[in-house]
Specification:
single chain; 309 residues; alpha/beta; Rossmann fold; six-stranded parallel sheet; 11 helices; 15% strand; globular
Length: 309
């Protein structure tokens, strides 16, 4: 049996998905699916990533191990794996601790830029021309991952939260968009989803209350399997910078994403069906800032341009 490659990361859900192009390349080279060693909770995501398998159950010797996180935890995880080639990708010299050189056979220092992170890792791992890059992709989730409350027919998904509160768009802005959507498509259900933290649940509930319409609020009420199915089944997704944006694009769902304090070029791959609205486009001198700087009219124009309304 031929060996497989492995990737180690201790990043968040969306960051793990952005490794799919790199993992797919390694799988093609090795002739076996790439083993991913990531947080235990993310196993359902790995199961949907082409070219990937769940790493912790794989006890074999790996042809090569790539570590895309530079935390001590990720480095020790990589050190425990049997391989002839252990490699680390870092974007700043300060991420390299002195003892890392005793762990890795190869440390790739690639300076940061405004490059899309999925292509950044793929380019370093594959060494291929940038024009050959294909954005992350996901397989469709099984039908039994569906949340029991999910509508049977088409629906619009609103995902207004992320791990960072400073990425949030205004509650009143979301409420206005929902009202316009319902007016345009009175028979199209609107579903709200978000993380389970107290802050995210409260934000989603405030939006539902402000729009004064019968929306289905599933914020904090889905497992990861149910959440993945939810995103994959949506007619369209409106969200802020976060995992929902990455997932929707990987599932091929038309998406509009609002960006505030982060650079959209690093976290968004533009296509005719995936549009980014950045606060810096509306701030003086292109300054970063609150996502609320993106006006409702700009969001609505983007929604209409995708024929989502």
């Amino acid at each position: 049996m031929s060996e497989a490659a492995a990737i180690v990361s201790d990043k968040q859900l969306g960051d793990v998905l952005l490794l799919q192009p790199s993992a797919h390349h390694l799988a093609q080279v090795a002739g076996n699916s790439t083993a991913l060693f990531v947080r235990d909770a993310f196993r359902p995501l790995v199961e949907l990533m082409p070219g990937c398998v769940w790493g912790p159950e794989n006890r074999q010797r790996f042809s090569e191990v790539w570590t895309t996180s530079w935390s001590s935890r990720a480095v020790w995880q990589a050190f425990r794996l049997r391989t002839r080639k252990r490699r680390l990708i870092v974007n700043k010299p300060r991420h390299i601790r002195w003892w890392y050189r005793f762990v890795f056979h190869d440390i790739r220092l690639e300076p940061p830029s405004a490059e899309y992170w999925a292509r950044y890792f793929w380019r370093v791992v594959s060494g291929k021309e940038e024009t050959e890059f294909i954005a992350p992709q996901l397989k469709q989730p099984p039908a039994d991952w569906k949340h029991p409350a999910l509508p049977v027919g088409p629906f619009i998904l609103i995902n207004p939260t992320a791990a960072w509160k400073r990425k949030f768009w205004g509650e009143d802005q979301w409420a206005e968009i929902i009202q316009r959507l319902v007016k345009q498509h009175p028979s199209m259900p609107v579903v709200i989803a978000g993380g389970g933290s107290e802050r995210e649940v409260a934000h989603c509930q405030s939006i539902a209350d402000l729009c004064s319409l019968p929306v289905l609020n599933l914020a904090g009420k889905t497992s990861l399997k149910e959440y993945l199915h939810l995103v994959s089944a949506a007619q369209s997704v409106l969200c802020i910078d976060g995992a929902a944006s990455h997932l929707a694009q990987a599932f091929g769902i038309p998406t509009v994403t609002v960006f505030g304090p982060t650079h959209e070029g690093k976290w968004h791959w533009p296509t005719p069906h995936n549009v980014a609205l950045a606060a810096r486009q509306f701030n003086e001198a292109g300054a970063y800032g609150s996502a609320s700087a993106v006006p409702v009219e700009a969001m609505w124009a983007a929604v209409c341009s995708l024929k989502m309304a």
